[in-house]
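Appendix B. One record, verbatim.
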Amino acid sequence: MMSVTAANLGFPRIGPRRELKTATEAYWAGAIDETALLETAAGLRAATWARQKAAGIDVIPSNDFSFYDQVLDTSVMLGAIPDAYRAIGAADSLDLYFAMARGRQTKGGRSETAGDGCVHGHGAGSDVPAQEMTKWFDTNYHYMVPEVAPGQAFALSTTKPVDHFLEAKALGYQTRPVILGPVTWLLLAKSKAEGFDPVSLLPGLLPVYAELLAKLAEAGADWVQIDEPALVLDLTDAARDAYRAAYAELAKVAGVKLMLATYFGALGDNLATALSLPVAGLHVDLVRAPEQLEAVIAGARADLLLSLGVIDGRNIWKADLAAILDRVEAVARAHRVQIAPSCSLLHTPVDLELETKLDPQIRNWLAFAVQKLGELATIAGALNTGRASVAPVLAENEAAIADRRASPLTNNPRVRSRIAEVTANWTRRVTPFAERIRLQQAHLNLPSLPTTTIGSFPQTAEVRKARAAHDKGTMTTQDYEQFLREETKRTVAWQEEIGLDVLVHGEFERNDMVQYFGEQLAGFAFSRAGWVQSYGSRCVRPPIIYGDVARPKPMTVAWWDYAQSVATKPMKGMLTGPVTILNWSFVRNDQPRADTCRQIALAIRDEVLDLERAGCKIIQIDEAALREGLPLRKADQQLYLDWSVEAFRISASGVQPQTQIHTHMCYSEFNEIIDSIGAMDADVISIETSRSKMELLDAFVDYKYPNEIGPGVYDIHSPRIPSTQEMEDLLLKAGGRLSADQLWVNPDCGLKTRKWEDVKPALVNMVAAAKAARVALTPGA
């Protein structure tokens, strides 16, 4: 008889119906107070613990809840709060916390972003930007980058992990608190001091972690999950030394055992380091890196509890339970093991039971977070008491796996034959950029430093209400489209009024930049409540790519044509690129991702050519997620970059040289992929640079990027309204790095999530900044 436990590493925090998003945004708007927000959060935590207990999970996490981001939670807990925010309130105040996450702008003693409408310790007003934000490893989840400085002092400034553990304990749940490990936190951190290595701060940081562990032990925690996902990265010897030093110190804390959690890849050349650490348990990702199991077992101490991440924490397909059991039964007989998801279930939707309108056959192939808990319990049950004890569940699972494998829904022979016809000519623009840009400038006649936006404009309550009414059938298609035309016409007129040079139609007909296209492509399915957190209160519903992808008919041409008909200036055609559609979807796992991406690329190529035939001369193909999909290990990256760049070029390379191709990327570190960005050969690329104060431009400067670039001067993820001078300063800084004739002026990202009262003054300021920068950077132009 085995004794295998089912453990969970983390659960979605947003609630089955995005209750946390609703409450948080109500708090920001001043519609509810702090007490109401805290009560909603406590209710969600209690329901999550109960749900996991009922599903048969033996090891339930706590402190996996966050109001915004677990990295930000850690920074605040450690007292790593930059001076700009300290006057806002105490370290444990929501005002300070949300100011670090979103920025804060106050006027005349009243806060525009605080939930209670008040200023705390601010006098007559203040203006602080949000911290820098970037992607969490290779996911679409975003975290707030920790900011540290030489001589940084640390102190245990909040006791959130202890508080949540005690909260669960009071409800009858013995949980395993989750904390972000000290070395990963330092490796994620940045400093404004040039050449400073944040990892050098480890000796001053460890006493705070030791204090926290001691408090958790005192509160009654027997195990603590300490996440160190950086162990799957390419690490220096100094970083490995930091791991050894850190855990030698933390192992001294009495009364609590550490489960060291790694995920998102293989330990690889860090395996010896991980196995040498004096921890009681080690979690490994056997979904992303199944090949590492044998080496882990061979090197593990006899007393080391191995947590086997066998259920995919980042995708929504049912696990092949029989295949998993075949792999782990022998391991479970010979070693102490725990069964777990590959990583936190944060990256999956909450509950498939809410999906009542999905095609029943496709629905039967899926497992959301709640269903994954059931899979974990089934595997543990089969290991402990034999497969016969869970035979009906295993039989049902086996039938679903077989049904998906054999279904004609997953295979379109015409799509597969078209892929075989793609040649090298489909993947390059014949005319060199230097010649193309002259033709484009002659046709477009734009000023230096042309102004534009990234695509979307605010999706107001009226827009969402109209879409919901149309979806429910209470508004006719004719009335809905007339409403959208009016919104579009008004937005186009306003853009021309303030002097933007290249216009967008606002995308009011689009629910999401990926979903909108997926709904019009074959091979996609859509959930109704399959929300996952992207950052803060921002949630997305990734499409489900279950079969071969094709475009039955044009998707955007009619809306572009209408918008251009009511405009006097050039109107961009707005598309989402194949790599972003792939990376922001739940992708079929029964064929290589590269094959699926090429199918999407051909569909987007068809749309690009239809836009060009309709008269569109500027077409933006957003690849916001290209960097996000980059494998974490250097050795694995080039293959991905090769096929992802090829997919973009398939989509973009069929147009005439006079047609200008734009692309957009956001919240990425570009240094290691700049060659591939250059190889995309887009005429214009726009990127996020305002939070990094143009730091992200350095990669383009060092590379001597030849094409044109729009470094974002307006952080749209913060409700702040940047001043003209602030944006002009950023443009002048950009002009000191690149030639003025390369520069475009634009926000960091689309404006869908902002309010018109924020957007209008910000864009007016942006246009004014562009005019001032033109004078400074191109005198006499």
